[in-house]
Write a structure and sequence with these properties.
The protein has 178 residues and is an alpha+beta fold. 28% of the residues lie in helices and 25% in strands. Bound molecules: FE2/S2 (inorganic) cluster.
């Protein structure tokens, strides 16, 4: 009877538990091996992160407000312009501009109220603030660059307008940048 018990694992509760646990551990190990490469593939490489796109919900921004979003390590200005800001920008299309661009060329067609700009001064990369300077737009306090309500450089050492990133409207209230 003792011999039969040794050769029949099913009759030994301890042996049966061991087989059950070992089989379970093997199954988990196999699943783990399958899952890991998938998780690893989902970890974006550094260069992929640098190219990352972001989506932004414009409903968060009221007219006359600006939200600063971090994108590719830089601040991005998403500004809901007032009618007065838009009118001032269009009026200055004919002004003498250091980096000539119409206001219309700096926003999406029919979306003059939305200005999306890379928020780094084109002089040495400081972050300008809105509402200062001589042109009612952004002012960079580092060395005194003045941008208008279209983000165009008007005065000071910066050579270029605030950059407009690649972006698209996914709907009336959502944009995708990058
Ligand atoms: S970094 Fe803006 S004026 Fe120099």
């Amino acid at each position: 009877m003792a011999d039969t018990a040794l050769h029949d694992p099913g009759s030994d509760p301890n042996r049966r538990d061991f087989i059950h646990i070992a089989a379970g551990a093997a199954a988990v190990g196999a699943a783990g091996a399958l899952v890991w490469p998938l998780i690893d593939q989902m970890n974006p490489a550094g260069d992929t992160l640098a190219l990352a796109s972001i989506e932004f919900d414009l409903a968060k921004v009221q007219a006359g407000q600006q939200v600063v979003v971090k994108w590719r390590g830089k601040p991005l200005f998403v500004r809901a312009r007032t009618p007065a800001e838009i009118a001032a920008a269009i009026k200055d299309d004919s002004a003498s501009l250091r980096d000539p661009a119409t206001d219309e060329s700096r926003h999406k067609p029919g979306k003059a109220e939305w200005l999306v700009l890379v928020g780094t001064c084109t002089h040495l990369g400081c972050v300008p603030t809105f509402g200062g300077g001589d042109y009612g737009g952004w002012f960079c306090p580092c060395h005194g660059s003045h941008y208008d309500t279209s983000g165009r450089i008007r005065k000071g050492p910066a050579p270029k307008n605030l950059a407009v990133p690649d972006y698209a409207f996914l709907s009336d209230t959502k944009i995708k940048v990058g």
